[in-house]
């Protein structure tokens, strides 16, 4: 099936699930993101499940940023307000530029589904070493919202007036 936006530029994507409980056999959000990324014509070049530990998360994301093969990092989980959630604290220091509109837009759209509970969402995004990083809640419905209503179009060079494709590092395919 063709991608509805006609994306002809495939990107290399890392999918990172932050969870102290998920496994490769039990990661519906990671499964969804991998399928959605591939349906859009991109390549999942790394898929990892990581415990919710800010230093482990930071190390994995730092490796992705430094990699010449990864252009996009999608992180699901660890963005809530619970004391164990540490994704924003792990990744925000790595950003060269924050994409503040992502969190704002995610919470606005999320409000339609979960009302005031969206206050506890700490979805964030940024650009680091020409790698775009999106972090959002780990529920599968949140992954659908983030991918389908925001991220997918921003990874398509045909999206006007702007998208992130031209700002990403070039990789040899």
Describe this structure in words.
Pathway: Cofactor biosynthesis; molybdopterin biosynthesis. Keywords: Molybdenum cofactor biosynthesis. Belongs to the MoaB/Mog family. The chain has helices at residues 28-39, 54-66, 87-91, 100-114, 140-154; strands at residues 12-18, 43-50, 72-76, 97-98, 124-128, 131-136. With 173 residues, it is an alpha/beta fold. The chain has a single domain (12-167), classed as Molybdenum Cofactor Biosythetic Enzyme, Chain A (3-Layer(aba) Sandwich), CATH 3.40.980.10. The chain has a 6-stranded mixed sheet with strand order 2-1-3-6-5-4, with helices on both faces. The longest helix has 15 residues, at 100-114. It is globular and about 40 Å long.
Record field, number of beta strands: 6
What integer value in Å does the Rg equal? 15 Å
CATH top-level class? Alpha Beta
- Biggest pleated-sheet summary: 6 strands, mixed
* Coarse shape: globular
End-to-end separation in angstroms reads 22 Å
Number of helix segments? Answer: 5
For this structure, the CATH topology is Molybdenum Cofactor Biosythetic Enzyme, Chain A
As laid out across the biggest beta sheet, the strand order is 2-1-3-6-5-4
Structural class: alpha/beta
Overall pLDDT metric: 88
* Strand residue content: 15-25%
CATH superfamily: MoaB/Mog-like domain
Report helical residue fraction: 25-40%
**Domain count:** 1
Order of helices and strands: EHEHEHEHEEH
CATH architectural grouping: 3-Layer(aba) Sandwich
